[in-house]
Amino acid sequence: MLSPIASLPLSTLIEKLRSAELRSVDLTTAFMDSIADHDAKLGAFVHLDRDVALQQAAEVDAKRDAGESQGPLAGIPVAVKDVLCMKSQPATCASRMLKGFVPPYDATVIAKLKQAGVVVIGRTNMDEFAMGSSGENSAFGPTRNPWDTERIPGGSSSGSAVAVAARMAPLSLGSDTGGSIRQPAGLCGIVGMKPTYGRVSRYGLIAYASSLDQIGPFATDVTGAALLLEAIAGHDPRDSTSVNKPVPAYSQSVDQPLAGLKIGVPVEHFAEGLAPDVEKAVRAALEVYKSLGAELKEVHLPHSKYAVATYYLIATSEASSNLARYDGVHYGHRAEKFDSLGEMYEASRGEGFGDEVKRRIMLGVFALSAGYADKYYTKALQVRRLIRSDFDAAFGEVNVIAGPVTPTAAFKLGEKTSDPLSMYLSDIYTISANLAGLPGMSIPCGFTAEGLPIGLQLQAAPFEEERLFRAARMYERETDWHTRLPPLAH
Amino acid sequence: MSYDVIIGLEVHVQLQTQTKIFCGCSTMFNPDHPNVQTCPVCLGLPGALPVLNGHGFRLAVKTALGLNCQIAPYTKWDRKQYFYPDLPKGYQISQFDLPFSHDGHVDVEIAADAKSGKAASSRRVRILRAHMEEDAGKNMHDESGSGRDSKVDLNRAGTPLVEIVTQPDLRSSDEARRFLEELKLLLTYLEVSDCNMQEGSLRCDANVNLHVHQPDGSKVATPIVEVKNLNSFRFTEQAIEHEIARQWKWFQETGIKLGDKGGYKSTRGYNPDRGETYILREKEEAADYRYFPDPDLVPVLMSESQVAEIRSEMPEAPAPRRTRFESEYQLTGYDAAVIIDQGREFADYFEGVVKTCKDGKQAANWLTQDVLRETKQREQSITEFAVRPEVLGALLDRINQKQITIKSARDVFGELLTESDQDSAVPAIGRIDEIIAAKGLAIVEDTGAIDSAIAAVLGRNAKAIADFKGGNEKAIGALIGQVMKAVKGADPQTVKEKIITAMSQS
Amino acid sequence: MQLSHEHVRKVASLARLKVTDAEVESLLGDLTAILDYVGVLNDVDTTGVQPMVHAVELHDVLRQDTVVASLPRPEALDNAPRSDGEYFLVPTIIES
Ligand SMILES: [Mg+2]
Ligand SMILES: [Zn+2]
What we know:
The complex is a heterotrimer of chains A (about 500), B (about 500) and C (about 100). Chain A has about 500 residues and is α/β, with parallel strands linked by helices. Helices cover about 40% and strands about 10% of the residues of chain A. Chain A has 16 helices and eleven strands. The termini of chain A are close together. With about 100 residues, chain C is mainly alpha-helical. Chain C is built from three helices and two strands, in the order ααβαβ. Chain C starts with a helix and ends in a 6-residue tail after the last strand. Classes of the chains: A alpha/beta (about 500), B alpha+beta (about 500), C mainly alpha (about 100). Chains A and C meet through helix 10, helix 11, helix 12, helix 13 and helix 14 of A and helix 1 and helix 2 of C. Zinc ion binds next to loops of chain B.
């Protein structure tokens, strides 16, 4: 059973905290209880530190009692993906390789959350090192979809999506390298946003593919996502790829509808492979926009059919390098048995990494190796620019691009684990935004006949998150998909 | 059969920054306290990200400009991937295809060698490229061979380095040493590196092989050997000498040349105790470093005006300064070189002295003899030396003004030093004239006083006069001494001449 | 792209991954399929296209050369699988 508090919308929680009708300690306790009730079935959390969370909550309450002014999210619990470093809390990336690793520092987003008085309620499950699209590649075991626990919740930010979908946390953070926020948000029926590359600092985000990774929010509604992005975005001198641009007050403008909205509908995203029920829901959503006065326009992204191939070469190349640091010397897993330094490396890495991680490291090492780098890695970088150019051209004509998040709704656990390539193809619509560095979001837009959520993806030009939020909110006001609770939460 | 020696060097230089290349940890040399200068970035912790040290990059550009290199308008950072315990990320951030600078040169002057009869010569050593990279940490191997653990200290990991790669333009171990000396002089002049070899601030790898002359006039090359990690100039010279002899002997025995089966490039180390190189890697298996652009770092652009601005901040480099000293102060090439080669502060001191005394030659004589001797004796650097350039300049000016003799000036100089040795104070210019007065060292132009003193001395030294006239020329010394004692500040040469005249007249 | 068992082993060795015979077999199959798939990129004419390394066009991001406190040594060594309280410890590095 869902506690009455945990089922309230975020805006109500904020209001009750502000008016001192509700204390953060009680709110945090309510969500902790919700986790205790549901997570054994869902596997969304990998680490909980009740004392630390309640301590943070108590501090916020004390400040409020003392009359100190606080940000809108002060006292609100947020779950974070196990990929973000937080001082004195384990950070494992759901990998045996990082079992027991405790970072001595806070990621910039964690520091910002603390600054905002946000209560970090727990660390969420994920595909190992953020490599996966189903939440099944975890040393802690799979995460399950609260709409049907026989199905995957999507990945790699599986636990963060499920935590919010099952109301075990009102908000959460994930990371998105090829769709890892938008895809699970879509499959779990919540809002998820991948910001523009450079909008949110990556300092303290354990890297999968550095040029694609971006941290972003999950929420049950658009306003929640806007509030959370507002809290974590901004320039960070500790991240050379962080962009120095002011952060708009997204939550202030989110309710203002956009006049003259031109929505691009990419023909390539409605082609072969798209499930009919998904297509139907997405097309219906487009009709809603039309009824709100938006103009729908067909656009072409001719290189999008190369996005998956491009992504898997670039992401794995970078990953093969980013994961070289896990060698059992300075931190992380070290094998017990070896006869030499070389064997120690090979055994530690062989034991520490799961199959999918090994597969991607192998592909990346191959793609960068002598004699192959030009044909694979560099070629992919060239196609990446063409993919970006497609978007630049499209955004010359429209201001938002809309389409499906995934080709199908959530599939069954184990359904694609033996066929990596078919798993990779589930990111087909989300991957280009990472390659191009664009912001994208997923909002709930319906359900399949089996009662599985369907997501609508909205994308915009770089740093147009504000436009995305407003466009998303226009639709959200007209529909009630986001208010539906998964059966498990009832 | 004879051969040419072909040598190219790769030199790693630590830049003189306060902090590491990509994080705020101190670069202080601190081997006694391992692993106290680390942070998430230089430990390579998951999630940590590098940000370039802007000052370090400027120092690198200065280095390259000093090497007469071109500065690239666009440069980027690449990852060089290999596994080693002193490399925490599993890759070194370095520069691959677009280094920040390339195509320069250093002119090396080789002094004449009387022993071998070799004339002085000059060699232009082309610089292929200079790139920036991070240093690794330090592994401490178990020396006992008992198979115990190796230790890793990451204090040094992330120290900014410039790697300088020469073309194979050096032709002898002597030239290689001279090149390194000139490089060290240049880098310390530019204040980009302290080049402290004991602390590993300058490390050298040498690529050596021979081009053997064939009877038909053609040449064949012996397999190239890279001698790694030479940490002193002397060892570099010795290692190259040993390689030359070893390769020559091996070639005569086997005839194997570069590219033959068994004629591959190999890597060797140098054992200074045995004076020999030893094999490190037999076959240089084409290492696959899988270089690719570091996605965590962004490019650096350098406009011509930025380069010009950095150039304008740079002090004059040693080579042009030598030339200028020769022409501006009429120094011999030898004197100019001795002064410049002492380092920038010494040359600055020299110019300080000349500014006051207006006599380059005189100043050069004093610096290369008296000042060098005294600083060496006191184990002082020129900046610690008590007699400041304006004081020495004033003293030398007294000589030029014929106020005191060179000998008296040496007395004053010695007195200034003795005093400061006692009270460790820096003597003021005024002290010069006080000492001259106290010791009566001023040149006495009053010939009447000298004449009457001579008359008095000769009057009571009949025996000495007889000795002198009898052919004992040394006898005059005692007479001069007595006259000088009576007339302080008299010029000994004048006194001597006057005594001789007086005796011949008597 | 025709991969061999030997090639897979060579890549595993470059990656410092210990792989069993069974893993080599399955990796060979997976990598072959993936490389086949990414072969579609050969259809794209990329003549003259500048490789795109970054998603943002930033340059000259620089830090001040000012010392920031380092980690206390115990924190630096805290996660090490083996240390002696001063150094990270690894099996003897043999200079081969
Ligand atoms: Mg190097
Ligand atoms: Zn550091």
